[in-house]
Structure formats: C-alpha cells, structure tokens
Design goal:
single chain, 122 residues, alpha+beta, Aminopeptidase, 4 helices, 34% helix, globular
Length: 122
C-alpha cells in the first residue's frame, strides 16, 4: 500500500501457500475434514505498517485486503484456512480481533478456516 500520489510505502504484507498438519487443529474441526496428514492453507506473513502511519487503522486495512485475496484464491488452491505467525502477544491479539484462533501448542501461531472467513466477510 502506497501513500496516495506518492511512491512512499505505508505498509505491506505477503501471502503464500502453506500446509497445516491436521493434528494441530482442534478435534471439533478435524472430524469434519478429509483424513489427510496435512491440508493446504494460505499464510499471511510479513505484515508491517510504517511507524508514521501506525494507529491509523492501516494494519486493519491491510489484513482486510489480504483476507479478501485469500478468499478469492482459496478455490484455486483448495485452501482450508489462513494462518499467521504473530511476532508477539500484542500482534496475536490483533489477529484474534479478526476471528483468528491460536493453535493450542503454539500461542503465537493462529488460524482461521475459510468457512469462518467467508462468514466474517459477508
């Protein structure tokens, strides 16, 4: 995302495909999923906002844009969830605000199923 009328970068994120081991997901979710050792997902990574623009909801705008892109691409790659790795607990809480859930064994890694994401975006 660039500042309007300039080339100054306000913030950015990256998206890539990934996999999630089904043993890391809650049992309530896995009983509804295919019985594979790992399932495809999308990783939202490297989210950052220039310090001059922090506190202006730019991070929220970037996450919203990223999640919309994930939904548009999810059918192409059969992704069942979006994953994030937060840098600290404050960042993890930021993602929880959007509906992400923490993995039980890794408190700074979070996920949101595509089904939940589609509901959220409606």
């Amino acid at each position: 995302m660039a500042e309007e009328g300039t080339a100054r970068i306000i913030g950015y994120y990256s998206l890539c495909t990934c996999s999630v081991e089904t043993t890391q997901l809650p049992e309530s979710l896995t009983k509804k999923l295919p019985r594979y050792a790992a399932l495809p997902g999308m990783l939202l990574g490297r989210l950052a906002v220039d310090v001059r623009y922090q506190g202006q909801r730019m991070g929220t705008r970037l996450v919203a844009d990223a999640l919309k892109r994930c939904v548009r691409r999810s059918n192409d790659i059969a992704a069942m969830a979006v994953l994030v790795d937060a840098k600290d607990d404050k960042a993890a809480q930021f993602y929880e605000h959007f509906g992400f859930q923490r993995f039980a064994d890794r408190s700074l890694s979070l996920f949101m199923t595509m089904r939940e994401l589609r509901r959220t975006l409606r």
